[in-house]
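Following up on my earlier thread - several people asked me to post the actual chain instead of describing it. Fair enough. Here it is, all 335 residues.
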Amino acid sequence: MPRPTARVLTLLELLQSGGVRTVAELADRLGVDERTVRRYVEHLVDLDVPVESVRGRYGGYRLASGYRMPPLMLNDDEALAVLLGLVAGRRSGLTTATNTAGETAAAKIRRVLPQRLGGRLDAVLGSIAFTAPEGEPAAPDATVLLTIADAVSHRRPVSIRYTARDGRHSERTLHPYGLVAHSGRWYVTGADPAIGEDRTFRLDRIASARTLPGSFDPPEGVDAAERVLSGLATAAYRHEVTLRIRGTTEQIRTRLPASVAIITESAPDWSHVELRVERLDWLPGVLASLDLPFVIERPDELRDLVEALADRLRDSARRRQVVRRRRSAGRPDRG
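Reply from S.P.:
Thanks for posting it. Predicted structure:
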């Protein structure tokens, strides 16, 4: 028969699953009478676990928000999900502040796991391979993230201290529409009332955030993710590229995502494409891989790069034919 301590821990696990649990339900799950359930609840309260009593027809017990997190009861699937989430967050660069918090959290979970489960989880974590390189350190401060998230939820303006890409520091007011995680970084998008324009900021470049009095009304149906991607595609980079490509938005997006290009379907079967990029050398290969007719409107430098790629491809194709003819003629290969 389970000892009282085991039943108390089982009660805690049941309460952690959320919602209100009736005394009758808890008694049935624990295999005890209702009076014993109440005694077990008193044990949890003595341990500073914030258990609330809910009165009424559908009353019972639930966990309240306490000043500290109560002991967590995780089954095998939950423990694996938490550890994999910590590993994935660290690899993707989406952890907050530094990797220290994620590493210490994972260590605490590993330390209290049974040996059998710990060994199995180690086998899973040790056998995982990632196809993408580990994300560069670009984690935001946890306080900044939580402050802005609260402002988004309650439609409150915030004051932020920001460091731009060129190192310039500024302090500005923002009406935040939403937070977006993209390619290993956190972004906030919203309106800058001082200039009357929408802006997008990287959270890791925000030194501090402070909620301001008042409130604001965001635009109807605002899509924070779409605004961030559009902002990235129109950022001020070295080259402005304009193309016309014979294809639909869906076809072009396979090689030029929303964070890179703005696509507008114009004439029948053609789309207008705009990009702002720091380098042009990667674009000829992307355009070739689209396998769609295109016209370069600007810059001329891109046209030269595409022609150079076409010449190299043509030379490579002919070189193979020359080698084949030399071999058939019995002459040595010379490249």
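The first strand starts at residue 51 and ends at 54. That should answer part of your original question.
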